[in-house]
Amino acid sequence: MPFAIDLFAGGGALSVGLKRAGFSILAAVEIEQHAFATYTANHPEVKAYKQDIRTINGRDLRALVPGGAIDLLAGCPPCQGFTSLTSKYRRYDSRNNLIREMARLVEETKPKTVMMENVPGLAGRGRSLLKEFQDRIEQLGYEVDVDILQVADYGVPQNRRRLVLLAGLGFQVPMPRPTHSKNKNEALAPWRTVRDALSGLTEPITLTEAKERSVFERSNWHLTRSISEKNKLRLIHAKPGATWTAIPEDLRPECHKRGYAGFRNVYGRMSWDEVAPTITGGCTTLSKGRFGHPDMDRTISVREAALLQTLPPDYKIDTRYIEYACNIIGNALPCDFAEAVAKKCLEALLTNVQSRPKDCVKNVTAKELSTTLPDPPYQEAGTTQ
Fold this sequence. Notes:
The protein is an alpha/beta fold. It contains 12 helices and 11 strands. Helix 1 (13-21) packs across helix 11 (335-351) and helix 4 (98-109) packs parallel to helix 5 (127-138).
């Protein structure tokens, strides 16, 4: 089985996609404690490092792999400094430089393939860092391809554009072809919708109710925030798929009155028969996006947000705080999209296995790749200080 390392692992959504694609994950790195707890709860067999990526040594990662040959180094460096949601502030974000740490680990581990995901803004405001990353790994012999993909084209019921960088050491890793289409296309399935992801679920309760009734542990995070009466009135007037302009002016927040023309995708409802808007860490807050339920006077629940990110229905979100739960989900790479991209890495490995570097375990055929390498030894996930 091919071996992968997951950097900036968050709550583990990328690892779900890597596993589905056929990779065995030997190590993951995540510093935020709630995300780390969620990762280890769902991927207990992975050697998980709860520490700053800047303290991770590539030699240690290579030591985890039989023969020292890493097949895929994957990661989603923090992207808040480049997202369109923060672009108007133009503030420097120190997390932007963490992409350099991923480049360093590519240099130190020399994996067969590299997969990096980020916001499209990395090719805009962050283009100098993207070019630096690409130049550094191309000097090592990697062939690099970069594109901006729409996750809805790969079966995710959500409008979310992501920058994807794929690289092979001495060979190309092509981008995955779309499997779904917004327009009628006989060769492709139609985009999956909010209805496809959320229909048939029971009605959630609020987080406050869950704790008062002592049912939080059984809730599976199918919970919402309590909302004000004014926000309920706004939802009553909101139209599925429309902007906040459908709400009478006297019910709008003061900042949205008198000709306001700023963010329009807030205080709205999702539409059953369309893809969801981009799921963010504000996914259960009406003022932070079009996160109203299609026909009920509430926002979507935390679990519903997770389903729109194509996380498994039973995926454990290991925190008692709704803010952290929403951030874990909003920061996730949709699992189905991760799987589609990771499959292209695996296909490229199988196709180009004979051109592997000399430090591989051994030179094997594509057929042998999935059968000759031993399964990694079981290692209890934990904290490395």
